[in-house]
């Protein structure tokens, strides 16, 4: 390559392609250390490949700072050859580069204000040179084309603010055109906040209460959406648009394997069939990428948390027909509870075959092994209520150390297929097989402390479970225009076949345990057979949807679905057997309207329905009807064109009917006369202030109550949820303070008090406020971060306390992360 005539000793060249990178990285590093400058490397990639590089757009997040380092990082990420003298750049600063750009546009932004420009060379590389001080009138500058990449509904979120979704419609739809509230959390937000669980990732999302795990925060992903529990058992969790997991004991999803998490709020059976009325959560798996991706992370944190993770992806051939991704993680960790652990192995390979722009097939597989504990609860006296013997420490383990494990092995394999027959007709077909086994040994408290104030009764339990799920979804999307009206019609069906087998044991006898003077059993805990549980479900649903757009101003969404569910359950005890075999069917619908104003405002209104099968019978042996959900919602979105801002405000009225309550004639049976209503207001803001500050704000007001019940005193009670949730998160790059490589973030989460429910009985905890913080530093391909959650180490009770038993919230967690990307 021809060198610029003004260069002195050497110049820097960044690698033009992945092929040349491996052959030059070691040599370049050695010469850089010896000479103090980078070494120019001859290009080995074809000239055509270089020529095409400038046409490719990519997303960058290069902070303001020293120009040499920024150019080195840009060259690696863009895959171009960039030649320059370090003497020319070492004393200069850059404003950084954020967003999606082509090479020419990106270089122009990086070099703004430096007096330098990048000249395109014949071989496709770039040469840095000083801008001329004067220019003849007949000189023509090369054209700089500024281009952008449209976000994909299943790809990375560009920053904090998502613009598209597929969860709400099963089509790639602008989020502002959806007449129903939906929140999207992308990879960057998860990384900045160092989310270790789905609950962590959704902690700053409007409409969600994330501290209400129905079983245990270490083993399941339960949250509350608009006052109703959302968990795998009631059909609230989906992955890549297909049902994921079948019960509370299938474990937690590894968030490092996720590209985005989307929460569709309100009844959603129109697309997903049987589900709780609060909404559904769809997680999106990391998928193969076109640009090369290489990342290694090392973490160390509280409770001796040690984690190594890696993410690699990119094309496998020059034509880009084959691409891959492999995401892996290994963790060894304790927990804030004595004798606890949170170990995990995770690996997820993915392969995409895309022979043309019209056809793609992505194979997805995963294996996850988790070794943790079912953390024992604590009595209400000594945690939520005072105890004369003192406060029970949060780390106190109330159980037996030799009877203490929750081990799961989960495997999945499936594919996502898509083919466009034309510009207006598209086929999608997806399939997955899921399998999980569980070996659990745990201890439960049977109630509050006894009269001594010191002792609780412990009951040891055990589960041996096997779960399998086969699920598939097939649909056709047809687009056509009639005058100024555009129709996008979706017709499809989905099918799920699941089986859950569980053999359960129970301790031969309960024993008293002194919570202030713990004495643990050292040998095996005697266990007796309790029961065998077999549950099978076959669900088939047909759906039809029309997205109608009139004059690019009005969007009408209409849809309907028919579901048929065959349910079988069998519980075998030593002397009894209870079986249930039946079928349920339901029709659900949705209708919505959005107005798209030119200034970015989009008011909307919608009505939507849901249903859930109820696997019980009344005193006459008649099978219960499915419970039903109906919601009316009005809202307003504001997303100014060309900005990183999305504001959503929504008001909703959500009702769940056919709820089972106590039979007034025979109290051992139930009847379906209950009703729960939830009304609320949600405000959510995601924006970028300038080029440096990301902001997330959310406020939730929930008025949920039992409106009908046969249980004495239950009607009129508030239904579990706090009235007010408020959160605010800000993350800023500190170049404005002459700290170009640094960033810092801080957040606050407020939860108001939860209600008491004497009819159950249950107690709600007092209000609490949690604070989180982070600080980050970037040095070329290296980045470092320190995250702290619950900064002030607040002791709090996040969930309802049932039958004299409570659970503490997570104490302060500190995590340090070192990342290398190249």
From TrEMBL:
GO terms for molecular function: siderophore uptake transmembrane transporter activity; signaling receptor activity. PROSITE patterns: TONB_DEPENDENT_REC_3 (PS52016). The lineage of its organism: Bacteria, Pseudomonadati, Pseudomonadota, Betaproteobacteria, Burkholderiales. It is found in: Cell outer membrane. Keywords: Cell outer membrane, Ion transport, Iron, Iron transport, Membrane, Receptor, Signal, TonB box, Transmembrane, Transmembrane beta strand, Transport. Belongs to the TonB-dependent receptor family. GO terms for biological process: siderophore transport. CDD domains: ligand_gated_channel. Residues 80-131 form the Secretin/TonB short N-terminal domain. This is Ferric siderophore receptor. GO terms for cellular component: cell outer membrane. It is a multi-pass membrane protein.
């Amino acid at each position: 390559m021809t060198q610029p005539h003004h260069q002195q000793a050497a110049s820097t060249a960044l690698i033009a392609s992945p092929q040349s990178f491996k052959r030059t990285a070691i040599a370049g590093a050695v010469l850089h250390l010896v000479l103090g400058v980078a070494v120019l490397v001859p290009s080995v990639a074809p000239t055509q490949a270089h020529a095409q590089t400038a046409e490719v757009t990519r997303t960058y997040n290069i902070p303001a700072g020293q120009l040499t380092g920024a150019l080195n990082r840009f060259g690696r990420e863009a895959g171009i050859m960039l030649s320059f003298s370090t003497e020319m750049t070492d004393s200069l600063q850059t404003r950084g580069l954020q967003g999606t750009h082509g090479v020419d546009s990106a270089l122009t932004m990086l070099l703004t204000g430096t007096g330098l420009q990048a000249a395109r060379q014949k071989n496709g590389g770039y040469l840095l040179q000083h801008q001329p001080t004067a220019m003849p009138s007949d000189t023509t500058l090369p054209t700089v084309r500024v281009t952008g990449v449209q976000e994909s509904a299943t790809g990375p979120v560009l920053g904090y603010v998502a613009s598209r979704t597929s969860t709400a419609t099963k089509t790639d739809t602008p989020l502002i055109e959806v007449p129903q509230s939906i929140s999207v959390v992308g990879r960057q937000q998860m990384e900045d906040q160092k989310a270790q669980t789905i609950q962590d990732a959704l902690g700053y999302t409007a409409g969600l209460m994330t501290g209400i795990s129905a079983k245990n925060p270490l083993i399941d992903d339960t949250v509350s959406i608009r006052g109703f529990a959302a968990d795998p058992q009631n059909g609230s969790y989906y992955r890549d648009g297909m049902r994921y997991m079948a019960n509370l004991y299938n474990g937690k999803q590894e968030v490092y394997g996720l590209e985005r998490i989307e929460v569709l709020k309100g009844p959603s059976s129109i697309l997903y069939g049987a589900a709780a009325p609060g909404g559904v959560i769809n997680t999106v798996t990391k998928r193969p990428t076109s640009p090369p991706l290489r990342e290694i992370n090392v973490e160390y944190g509280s409770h001796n948390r040690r984690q190594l993770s890696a993410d690699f992806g990119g094309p496998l051939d020059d034509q880009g027909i084959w691409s891959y991704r492999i995401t892996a993680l290994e963790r060894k960790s304790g927990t804030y509870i004595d004798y606890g652990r949170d170990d995990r192995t995770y690996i997820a390979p993915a392969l995409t075959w895309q022979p043309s722009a019209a056809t793609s097939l992505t194979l997805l597989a995963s294996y996850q092994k988790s070794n943790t504990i079912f953390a024992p609860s604590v009595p209400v006296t000594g945690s939520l209520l005072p105890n004369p013997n003192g406060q029970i420490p949060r780390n106190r383990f109330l159980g037996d150390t030799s009877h203490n494990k929750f081990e799961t092995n989960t495997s999945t394999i499936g594919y996502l297929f898509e083919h466009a027959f034309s510009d207006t007709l598209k086929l999608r077909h997806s399939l997955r097989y899921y399998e999980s086994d569980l070996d659990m040994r745990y201890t439960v408290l049977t109630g509050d402390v006894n009269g001594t104030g010191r002792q609780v009764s412990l009951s040891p339990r055990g589960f041996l479970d096997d779960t399998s799920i086969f699920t598939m979804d097939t649909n056709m999307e047809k687009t056509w225009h009639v005058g100024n009206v555009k129709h996008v019609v979706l017709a499809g069906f989905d099918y799920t076949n699941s089986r859950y087998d569980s053999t359960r044991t129970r301790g031969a006898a309960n024993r008293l345990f002194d919570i202030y003077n713990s004495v643990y059993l050292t040998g095996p805990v005697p266990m007796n057979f309790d029961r065998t549980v077999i549950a099978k479900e076959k669900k088939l649903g047909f759906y039809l949807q029309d997205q109608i757009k009139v004059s690019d101003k009005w969007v009408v969404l209409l849809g309907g679905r028919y579901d048929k569910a065959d349910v079988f359950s069998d519980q075998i005890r030593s002397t009894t057997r209870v079986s249930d075999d039946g079928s349920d069917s339901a029709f659900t619908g949705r209708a919505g309207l959005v107005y798209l104003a030119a200034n970015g405002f989009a008011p909307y209104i919608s009505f939507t329905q849901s249903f859930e099968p109820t696997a019980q019978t009344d005193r006459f042996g008649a099978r219960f009807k499915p419970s039903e959900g109906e919601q009316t919602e009005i809202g307003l979105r504001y997303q100014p064109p060309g900005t990183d801002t999305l504001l959503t405000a929504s008001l909703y009225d959500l009702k769940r009917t056919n709820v089972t309550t106590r039979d007034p004639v025979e109290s051992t049976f139930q009847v379906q006369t209950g009703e729960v209503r939830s009304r609320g207001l949600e405000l959510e803001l995601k924006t970028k202030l300038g080029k440096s500050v990301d902001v997330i704000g959310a406020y939730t007001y929930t008025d949920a109550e039992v409106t009908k019940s046969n249980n004495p005193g239950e009607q009129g009670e508030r239904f579990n949820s706090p009235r007010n949730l408020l959160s605010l998160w800000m993350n800023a790059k500190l170049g404005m303070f002459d700290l170009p490589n640094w960033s810092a973030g801080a957040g606050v989460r407020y939860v108001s008090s939860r209600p008491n429910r004497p009819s159950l009985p249950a107690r709600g905890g007092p209000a609490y406020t949690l604070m989180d913080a982070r600080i980050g530093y970037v040095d070329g391909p290296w980045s470092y971060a320190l995250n702290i959650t619950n900064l002030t180490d607040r002791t709090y009770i996040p969930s309802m306390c049932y039958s004299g038993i409570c659970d503490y919230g997570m104490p302060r967690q500190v995590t340090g992360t070192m990342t290398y990307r190249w």
